[in-house]
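User: Hello, can you help with two protein structures?

Assistant: Certainly.
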Amino acid sequence: MSRVSVRVAHPEDAPAVNALLAQLGYPSPESLVRERIALLADRQDDRVFVAEMGGEVSGVLSFHVMTLFHAPDNLGRITALIVAERKRGAGIGRALCEAAEVFAWSRDCGRIEVTSGHHRSGAHAFYQRLGYQLDDHRRFIKQREPSR
């Protein structure tokens, strides 16, 4: 079995990251992915991590730290975690989450949250195996009206 290595993403990773996003149902223009990787690389409290296995990018995780107004510590948020379909179960997701947790704790986060669609039961079980607990709070979303 190949070893998993995790590093910070570079704009050159955009084609591989874009392919991963498409596998999860989030196709994006490669130029946007490249732009976002570069933008987040310049921010102190944001990271995009990629995992390599067998010499190829096999997973990606985006992470953001938010300063909370009402609490003394920060909140960490995983906004995307994708592992290549053919490499799931090889420890890639776990390695990415461990990198995110090290980053979060170094940025004074008191907790990490992640949102996962109702239909992704495998992802839910994965997060629970890593110690994440299902939260029973309601999340409310308001979409911006399309511009005319």
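That covers the first. Now for the second protein you mentioned:
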Amino acid sequence: MATSQNGYRANDRSLIASYKVPGGKISMRKGDVATVLSYVANRFHSEVEPLKWPGNWGYAERKIRGGSSLSNHASGTAIDLNAPAHYLGARGTFSAGQVRAIRRILNDCGGVIRWGGDYRGRKDEMHFEINAGTAAVARVAKAIRAGKKPGPSGGAVSGGGSSSPTYKTVSGSTPLVKLYHKGEPVKRIQKAVGVKADSYYGPDTVKAVKKWQKANGLAADGIFGKNSWAVLNGGKAKKPKKSSAPNFPLPRGHWYGVESSNPKNHSGYYTKDRAGIKQFQAKLKDRGWSISVDGIFGNGTKKVVGQYQAEKGLRKDYAVGAKTWAAIWEYPIT
């Protein structure tokens, strides 16, 4: 049986599938490996630099460049990200801040990922590969699927740190509950919607809540508010009507985002753009997000927008285009 450099079975396409990452798809080994590598790709996109296409690769039946062993790409246990900008053999293609972000991601993966920038010889800074056995990878994957930070030991520990979601504790009989909350009310919700009652309101719970809300005639937004609690506690609630969003202030194809050289991006640098940004920031604040309503699309606003998009099931591009703009006015929290 052919194996790649890290010991995984290689050149077997039945073990491979394509997985969505921001902007496209990458072919990876099915199951736990894909969960971990997709996690790395998503965090790379949001914390290091946006993925650029083409230039992101996964499964490939080949040997290590210049070597005799099968590459870890041949087992679907390696990915290359933004390869043209971080080509094989190059050094220092990332800034010091980007390297720190990469280190946080590696640490949060519990040691099961090795970065090509750490190779002793020829560097490969685009490259991220599985560097542990199936048991260790399974532990990290389980934590990721539960919406928790895997942690430096590869165990299922919650939240913590600016590099990954922090779970906020909620309490009371009928609190507003949304993505990345935890506590006794979450456990009650999980029991009602039929998922593991671990008290953490992660992506799997949000998905189950949306299905439950839809089945009960509620707006399926995944946020557990007064109407959802009323139904859970045996009462009834009418499905709220959608409200009309104000017209998106920017021309078609433009968006609000952090400062860049793209002429279609509006960051609040120009005074005329600040009213629209303030309007969206204020709506986020009304929805319970901690955000400054200052009309400037800085890193703080970018972070909250990304979290909001994840919560709503929107494309997580950390910018406010027409779809994200319209979504926040869709309906009251249920």
